[in-house]
Amino acid sequence: MSGIMGYFYNLVVFPGGLFALAVGMFFAGIDRKIYARMQRRVGPPIYQPIIDLIKLMHKETLIPRTSNQKAFRLAPLAGFAGMLVLVTCIPVPGVFQGIGQLDNLLLILYILAIPAIALMVGASSSGSPFGAVGVSREMVMTIAYEVPLIIVILTIGIKAGNASGVLADFSLKSIISLQKETGSILSDITMVPAFIAFLCCIPGTLGAVPFDIPEAETEIAEGPILEYSGISLGLFKLTGWLKMFAVSALATVLFYPVPYGSHWLLSVFLFILKCLFTILISVTLVRATMARMRIDQAYKFYLRIPTGLALLSLVLTIFHVHV
Amino acid sequence: MSSYKIPIGPIHVVLEEPIYFQLEMEGETVRGVDIRSGHVHRGIEFLAMQKNIYQNITLVERVCSLCSNNHPFTYCMAMERIGRIKIPERAEFLRVIADEIKRIASHLFNTAILAHIIGFDSLFMLVMELREKIQDVKESTYGNRMNIAANCIGGVRYDISSEQAGFILNSLQAMKKPLEEITKIYLHNGSVRRRIEGIGVLTKDKAVEYGVVGPVARGSGIAYDVRADCPYAAYNQLSFDVITENTGDIKARAVVRIREIVESISLVEQCLKALPEGPTCLDYMPMIPGGQAIAKSEAPRGELMYYARTNGSDIPERLKWRVPTYPNWEALKIMLAGCKLADVPVIIGSIDPCVSCTER
């Protein structure tokens, strides 16, 4: 398949759209189940996200009178669309190479911020004071976790650029092919701090404890999504599940895409397994053993530990490459 | 920076009961707080003056759920004081047992809720699982998990067999180890300490000025406990420590509660060991003559005081009580001043407010 039809297939079926959504929901279900088992609860069934979604689709969408109606309606849609584009351009090693024009890590970083921005737009148009607090917190969080994220991506870019003879190469295709030749990036000891920094950013982007500060149920009652109901809320949930798949897939592609199977089915299976592993260690385990941070504490945390680790890897890599 | 107002309540995830805090915010910082109440006023004081003295035992038990034993307990003590009734010694001990079991359940509940508020749901589940043990004790001893209906004028309405005493002792023994674990988490876990250490400070001077009681006072270094300072029931025959902490922050109050649970367990054990033989209640319903009396006891949240006036008829002339949350929530204004928005629910949770007691 090629041309428009090919892109459409990528957007709707694989690796974006249906595939990403199914995997994202599966991850969310597994996450909730294991979280529950860790607390000695039975927990919801793994297909609970699907039930949630069907329920939300049948609910009425209420729009507050004080809100800016257009922005309030469009924000969840924009976030979902942005996420859909993002999952389309993530390659599945051994199966899908990625889309040529979108094959750029920096671009992915930009698109990754769209759901957060959509959430901010939606919340600030809702006219709720809790939403306003949530927006300011979401903004601080985005700034905080993007700093280490950018440094990690820069480090990997420099590593890939060294192999292909340029200063920095942000193409996912060349990052994967580099690892195919020399082994996973994670097997390089100098990249372990960068990997830890990346793992620290995952709960931040997904809004999981201890970084669920913008939503903070017991403080500001879900803040930004407080006024949303029905399918609009469902769209935010969908965006969240897609994001869960996207960031874990990104971690897999950047740090351990190899080994992958000879058959495409095996490759997809291994890919999902690696993504699930990423989610379990960075989200489930962390949220079961920690309390929520305060926004100032989270900000300080991100600018100290993950940024420090990422910088360490960056310096080591530059040293390794250019000296 | 411009300021804005944010409502916490009357309906809010973190509040179990309706109360309205209007916070004046500057960014994330609280600049002023206005507490408004009256959402669960049910007119119980008025109702108590329509019912007869014995019906009121059932009524006052329903003022509040978590300290539901202390209300009838203190009410009965006030009435017995008017009638100069001496209750059997076994009843005195059984009253202490009922009270301490309710105290353990109440303190564990607050310890759990505090963990939930800071977003640590695993700790919440851990504490609630432990609380389930004491709920089982309540259910097997009194037949109820919440309103245990233990007291009556002239004694208690239940008895503990030696078999039941063995079950209670075993349950309490099984609670000791998990309790140590929870204490360790509250004292040393970094992610918990980050949210409770040095926050919502009430200094000793301010605590005296506002007249706070219970764990809030003891967390600020005031060693005031009605059980020790003004013993009632069988407390003068039992030995226990009055737990105090000096820092006056959320952690101090939480730690005071957890350590008091340990003391309560030891009190129940002492009671069961020293339980004298004899009747549990007078074998008649005493008439209450005209007169007035004050009785006070240490509820889980602090000093509970009852004033009763009778005129010889079966309807009390006046019944009035002062509950521990009443002085405590005024002190919230001190604790909340200048804190961050994220700390507000934690601070409110740390005084363990009982709104339905206070508004009745």
- Multimeric state: heterodimer
Large-scale geometry of chain A: globular
The number of E-state strands of chain A comes to: 0
Count of runs of 4 or more consecutive helical residues of chain B: 15
Of all protein chain pairs, which has the greatest interface, and how many residues does each chain bring to it?
A-B, 29 and 33 residues
The end-to-end span of chain A amounts to 45 Å
Structural class of chain B: alpha+beta
Describe this structure in words.
In chain A, 71% of the residues lie in helices and 0% in strands. With 323 residues, chain A is an all-alpha fold. Chain A has one domain. The mean pLDDT of chain A is 84. Chain B has a single domain (42-352), classed as Cytochrome-c3 Hydrogenase, chain B (Orthogonal Bundle). In chain B, 49% of the residues lie in helices and 13% in strands. In chain B, the strands form 3 sheets. A 3-stranded antiparallel β-sheet of chain B has the order 1-2-3, with no helix packed on it. In chain B, strands 6-7-8 form a 3-stranded antiparallel β-sheet. In chain B, strands 4-5 form a two-stranded antiparallel sheet. The model of chain B has no long low-confidence stretch (mean pLDDT 88). The chains are: A mainly alpha (323), B alpha+beta (360).
